[in-house]
Amino acid sequence: EIRVLDSTAEIRYLVIPQRPAGSQGLDEEALAALVTRDSMIGAGLALAPAAAR
Amino acid sequence: MSYASHADLGGKPGCGAIVPEPAGELFHDAWEPRVLALTLAMGATGAWNIDMSRAARETLPDYAELSYYRIWLAALEKLLQERGLVLPDEIAAGHSLRSALPIARVLAAADVARTLATGTPTQRPATASARFSVGQRVRMRDGPFPHHTRLPSYAWRKRGSIERLHGMHVFADAHARGDGEQPQWLYTVSFDGVELWADASARGVTISIDAWEPYLEPA
Known about the structure:
By secondary structure, chain A is of the alpha+beta class. Chain A has helices at about 30, 35-40; one strand spanning about 1-5. In chain A, about 15% of the residues lie in helices and about 10% in strands. Chain B is an alpha+beta fold. In chain B, strands 1, 2, 3, 4, 5 and 6 form a six-stranded antiparallel β-sheet that branches. Chain B is globular. Chain B starts with about 30 loop residues before the first helix and ends with a strand. The interface of A and B includes residues 1, 2, 9 and 36 of A.
């Protein structure tokens, strides 16, 4: 199933990215480094821990 | 109808592929954040509302040729000149040529962060019952509309279902015309992709929009 939300919706939203595999045990700051713009608008996945700077 | 929105692009062919901007790159040039700041500062004066801003932007004749912040700048100049806050000779000169007109409110630099964090919420107390309920089948009204509206043309006359109620909110159509807030019930309406795009839609696609009650009829 694909859900599309028109971005001009009056009620603005953000997507909570799915937690990446291998990120258990990371603290908030480390987890935040995995979150991308695209992952918050449903256009991409959050980074895997090994890929983050 | 003399009103035409050039921003009503959803589902229209000929716009080309979407090229995502690199993540973290907010501005292309140093003047863009100045336009953002000027627009927000003038919006805070109460001289116009956001719905009037959107109407000003979407009716720019050269909308299709302008970048995002050039649209903001052109609309800002239009809104200022419509109200006599800046006159055409001052736009041309690049500085003021006469004393400023009074405005209701000046946003001080020290208050910017707090003001932006507060935002301008659009929800208002519910003063009427909602006409539609979750799960109900509805049909969108048909356009075109002789004013700013938030009903995209791809949804005109299309049938969907009420997914959620959001309470009563400032009604953009009335607010943009200067007719006051006229709060209306706001709904999320969901459509099957096939209803909107027919054979061009993949299966299993659901598209949702936010629609105020005046946009809806029972299906």
